[in-house]
Design goal:
The protein contains 14 helices and twelve strands. By secondary structure, it is α/β, with parallel strands linked by helices.
Length: 346
């Protein structure tokens, strides 16, 4: 069960501190934080990241996640990563479609009820403050733009708020605030991991290899194809009435040469997230950045979980040497660490 062996927030802090300051060969390792970025289906790569870190004995004291990063990070913190991995590896096209409960009457194209019930079944009433490590899910208050760090309350609710992509999933109301996807303000939450006490931050950016984005097209304008499209006849009268339903379907799903509503929103979100990520990582870089090569995996390719996990595994294996070097560089002799702790206490 999720609650078995868990401690309260106060005892959790003591436990994390003891784990971090436990001397190994007279050396005290730094507090390790993970900042897991957003990226929808690409986020299954985080599972591979967590598995490799664990295999090399690298245990985080702090985990902070945005969007799908909050889902994987929260599942890890709640000892439910096995459940999430089994579910991710078992998804196929048909099962993914079963989670797409389309709703054109709400504030998102996907109601999200099926996925929400899945999280509830796994996490039940697990609360963030009862987790055995420090955890935060990043969300955005959509009407103010505030960056919200969800550090208490129901874990499943925090996850839902963090991945509530505007226009796709409806906002989630928590503590009197309407919250949406945290990638709007902090796609790879290095700053939050540091604020929660991490001395060494390992960040995972799921969108680092989307080459060709953000360049400048210095000369562009209309051409003959634009004029031909504008002159094409439009349906009207009875024909327009009877073709309204297929037209609505084309608007939602798109048609050849013309993107649908979800595609437009997701690609616009991609552009924005890429620009914000570059700016924030430049201003507050992590100690180690893991960049899985996931450009071949689309945002909604949830049926490719095995592939995404393998890519995350490979990228982390290549980064292990850098992580160990960073840990060694930030480690202190046990006596010095104890002295620093005494000074901080005073």
């Amino acid at each position: 069960m999720v609650f078995e062996g868990f401690f309260t927030r106060g005892r959790n802090g003591d436990r994390a501190a003891e784990a971090t300051t436990q001397p190994t060969a007279n050396v005290t390792k730094p507090t390790i934080g993970l900042a897991l970025g957003g990226g929808a289906a690409r986020g299954f790569a985080h599972i591979g990241v967590m598995r490799v870190l664990a295999a090399h004995g690298i245990v985080p004291d702090v985990v902070v996640g945005t969007s799908i990063g909050a889902v994987v990070g929260g599942s890890y913190a709640a000892k439910e990563l096995d459940t999430l991995e089994t579910w991710a590896r078992g998804l196929n096209t048909r099962s993914v479609l079963s989670y797409l409960d389309i709703s054109l009457s709400g504030s998102g194209l996907i109601n999200g009820g099926h996925l929400s019930r899945r999280l509830d079944a796994s996490l039940k009433d697990t609360r963030i403050e009862d987790l055995p490590l420090r955890f935060a899910a990043i969300a955005t208050e959509f009407n103010t733009g505030h960056e919200i760090w969800l550090t208490r309350g129901r874990l499943a609710d925090a996850m839902r708020a963090s991945y509530a992509l505007p226009g796709i999933f409806p906002p989630v109301r928590i503590g009197g605030r309407w919250l949406v996807d945290g990638a709007l303000v902090n796609p790879v939450p290095v700053s939050a991991a540091r604020a929660l006490g991490a001395r060494l931050v390992i960040a995972v950016n799921l969108n680092s290899d989307l080459f060709g984005r953000g360049t400048i097209i210095a000369s562009h304008g209309s051409d003959e194809d634009d004029l031909a499209e504008a002159a094409a006849p439009k349906a009207n009268g009875l024909r327009g009435i009877f073709s309204r339903e297929p037209s609505l379907r084309r608007q939602v799903l798109g048609r050849r040469g013309s993107p649908g509503i979800p595609t437009v929103m997701i690609e616009a979100f991609n552009v924005m997230q890429d620009r914000i990520t570059r700016a924030r990582l430049a201003g507050d870089p992590p100690d180690v950045l893991i960049s899985p090569r996931l450009s071949s995996v689309g945002w909604f390719d949830f049926h490719r979980g095995n592939e995404a996990i393998a890519i995350g595994t490979d990228a982390t294996e290549k980064s292990i040497e850098s992580i160990n070097e960073a840990i060694a560089a930030l480690s202190q002799p046990a006596a010095a660490a104890a002295s620093n702790t005494d000074v901080a206490a005073k």
